[in-house]
């Protein structure tokens, strides 16, 4: 990969890692579901007018608006409100092992010994993280793991869906998710008008960053890299995201760096590496 594209890939990873920090501080200034609703509204306004969907794509986008927009993102925001940023980032990475398992069960994709080892490492790491002091209660762990599972389900749906451009996917999922998340905010959160009047630059900055920087700019750059380079050269960069998020949490939020986080995080990342990185192909015997 040329140096320019490598630096762009690393920039995307840093944007996504910092997104975890932004969400964490943002939900301290605004209720999570209200923040999520405003984020979706901004994404929809900026993207939907410039994209179009077909009748064939529409049902798939509606389903994805539930699994992605109504479950994955709101649960991520809720979970990060109760957990340390780095631990949350590591637990959400369990979406990859979940997706691997679901693909083996429902899509009959081959689960070889290497990927099975990766699954065992990742789940062992999640168990160690869940037992550490960085998570205040079991609810946060369950919320973040359910968010990861919703992401995994969404990836399987995208595999089965007709081709939809990434920007269209982002904008229309956001549009259809607005009433779902807004309803949840109305039912479970209070003092909406007062919160909007008194929200500071941190809350509004979180809305802007999660919508524009993370959803639109970062994903736009990421899919451009995927178009120019083989997947196995681009995707491994994502292994750096939770590592950077952990250290950003320690540096900016004074998160702890205990043995559970170090060992559990190392196992999760090792498991992801085994699952994602291509194995060596055996040379064919001469005929």
Automatic annotation (TrEMBL):
Pfam families: EamA (PF00892). It is found in: Membrane. It comes from the Bacteria. Keywords: Membrane, Transmembrane, Transmembrane helix. The chain crosses the membrane at residues 7-27, 33-51, 58-80, 86-107, 116-134, 140-158, 170-188, 200-222, 234-253, 259-277. InterPro entries: AA-Vitamin_Transporters, EamA_dom, EmrE-like. Gene3D superfamilies: 1.10.3730.20. It is a multi-pass membrane protein. Residues 6-129, 141-276 form the EamA domain. This is DMT family transporter.
